[in-house]
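Dear Dr. V.,

Thank you for agreeing to look over these. As mentioned in my earlier message, I'm a first-year student in the group and I'm still getting used to reading structure tokens, so any feedback on how I've presented them would be very welcome. I ran two proteins. I've put each sequence directly above its structure. The first is here:
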Amino acid sequence: MFFMLFQESPPNLVALFIFIPVFILTEIVLLKIGLMIVKAQERKNFYWVIISFFIQLLVIFFVFLPFILFGIAGEFNGENNPAILLVILLALFVDYNLINMIHRLGAKRSLVVFLLFGIPFIIFANIFGMIVNSI
């Protein structure tokens, strides 16, 4: 966010300040709905859903941290790098297993919650990338 200050056009912070809370609330609600659909037995209240969301968000952030640092340093030129695909698959696999570990759902029920949580997460990430790139 700090490096956006040095760009030629002023940053569109209003879009970010509206988009980020909508993203967080939507993902928390979808995670809770997913846990209700599969009838989770453990750690299904909002306290654990919020903790689970932020744990998943931090783990995905740390998996992508090398690419973020390369982007800030200017070394990542946006080429179709096969390492990005591997990192995305690794992040999805880790997120699926985190849902399974935290809520103790089992493989099949965890997949349902993961899809209900993961697909909108990917859509929001693409929209967030477009907002940041348009700044």
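The second protein is here, in the same arrangement:
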Amino acid sequence: MIAYSIIMFVTAVLFLVLGIVVYRGNTKLIHDYHQTNVKEAERKEYSRAFAKGMFAICATLLVSGIIALVGEEGFIVATSLSVLTVGLIVSVIILVKVQKKYNGGLF
């Protein structure tokens, strides 16, 4: 599970860095069709709300990786994967809500 944890930590750092960049207002990292209907006056709020979803993904990956370091028993593996699954679902819900609020829909 060490390899899994390393992958989770590296990916978490990637999402953290990208989240920070988006939080600071760089919406060029978000695909154009996801921000077609975002008003220019709301762009900063949009980027901050979108970054919160990315931070949630980062936290999910980090917690899942930490749990995986505890051991390789079936219960621990199942817990780590459950945390990953639930966290990613919650993160996607956050991102979908942001898209619906600021863009009027996903696309």
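From my reading of the second output: The mean pLDDT is 92. DSSP finds three helices and no strands in the chain. Does that match how you would interpret it?

Kind regards,
E.
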